[in-house]
Amino acid sequence: MIEQMLEKISEIMQTYEQLTDDIILLRFTVVNSCIVANLGEKPNEFVLVDTGLKTSGDFIIDTIEKLYGEKSYPKAIILTHGHFDHVGSVIQLIKTYNIPVYVHPLEIPYLTGKKDYPRGDSTVDDGMVAKMSKYFPNEALDLGGFIHKLPEDGTIPYMPGWKWILTKGHTPGHISLYRESDGTIIVGDALCTTKQESLISVLTQREQISGPPAYLTTNWEDAKHAIETITNLKPNLAVFSHGNPLEGEELRSHLKYLKDNFEELAKPEHGRFT
């Protein structure tokens, strides 16, 4: 019931936005994903980063057809991690496109049917999303032969110039995607620009620099280190799975503020993993 409610909420706003020449942000109210194109030697190639909820699949397919043509398809799906709001339409998409899915090795047990994620911790915050989180889907998916490990050297298939960075804490194998040439980072859930624990904040996308969604974060020391890692990169543009993108000095000052005040701004006072 809770999952169906979130899916209905996600359909309130399904839009896309051209952020840069090669990044298209896909918005599904409660979560974002994105299309990243290859502007090098193969300009018609692109990948999908995360897949939203189950109700996101049709919109993703329609958007790809609209932007790239009816017979176009992503070369691959790159997952920042395997939580339900990032893999919701992955099965529909791999059946539609017959494409590989790449993920950090530490996430593979959750995507090959071997291990469930911990249930959401509804005690971390008084917000409505946090309270509902214990009912969120946590069961492992089994993507079988479609799932592949990301290369150990940090490169990302079909994304020349990009590297994956381990930003664990929210999950054991959470990654962010970074392009050094222009300082662009796709953060995933390592931090947010809206308070994801609050339903009002989610619906209004009210800007508030925040840590990872607290109700599903299992290692706060690692989560702190992930934010330090991202801050030290001094990125120029950041794309978040929850909240609006930030860029320039506003981004860097927000990152530093969160890093310096992590205990107060990000880490909950109580919860199973604090």
TrEMBL record:
Gene3D superfamilies: Ribonuclease Z/Hydroxyacylglutathione hydrolase-like
This protein's name: MBL fold metallo-hydrolase
InterPro entries: Metallo-B-lactamas, NDM-1-like, RibonucZ/Hydroxyglut_hydro
One Pfam family hit: Lactamase_B
Domain Metallo-beta-lactamase: 30-242
CDD domains, alphabetized: yflN-like_MBL-fold (cd07721)
Entry-linked SUPFAM superfamilies: Metallo-hydrolase/oxidoreductase
